[in-house]
Write a structure and sequence with these properties.
The protein contains two helices and 13 strands. It has about 170 residues and is of the alpha+beta class. The chain folds into two domains: about 35 residues; about 130 residues, Nucleoside Triphosphate Pyrophosphohydrolase. The strands form four sheets. Strands 8-4-11-10 form a four-stranded mixed β-sheet, with helices on one face. A hairpin with a 2-residue loop joins strand 5 and strand 6. The structure holds zinc ion. Zinc ion binds next to loops.
Amino acid sequence: MLKIQPPKYEYCPFCKTKLLAKVDDDRSRKYCPSCGWIYYPQVFDSVAAIIIKNNKMLLVERGREPYKNTWMFPGGFVEYGEHPEETLRREVKEETGLKAEKISFFKIVQSVDDPRAPGNLIFFYQVKPYEGSIKTDEKENVAVNWFSLDRLPKIGWKSHKYIIKALKKDK
Ligand SMILES: [Zn+2]
């Protein structure tokens, strides 16, 4: 279990009343004394795509914080209502230009270093085969490129470093 703190709400998001705290199931919960809303913090979900061909891995270079100008697997947050597999196909298309044909689930990792979504669950998938040629998503990234597994660029996210280690061990 990660020791992380959820976002701090001070006011009820529905009726704007100042929240109070009470103990519920051994955890301190914030609640609204006016409308009865109870704050149960949840973690976000995200996905990342492992795309390897001929011993080369496809990575994207981040264009913004956190970890600006480090490299990562293409991926992103699950949108409301999306299945992670749908998110994966959408993100692969947006960030690499490729169409993911077949995907297979690899691992779930808890993010330990994303201040935007503490503890978010990252669903890693392997993508193969795919169609198309690579193209950068200029809104989010500054580059997309293939790298030999033994000559990788600087990786930012700890979860992505962990997956690379796991992949190398599998070989
Ligand atoms: Zn309220």
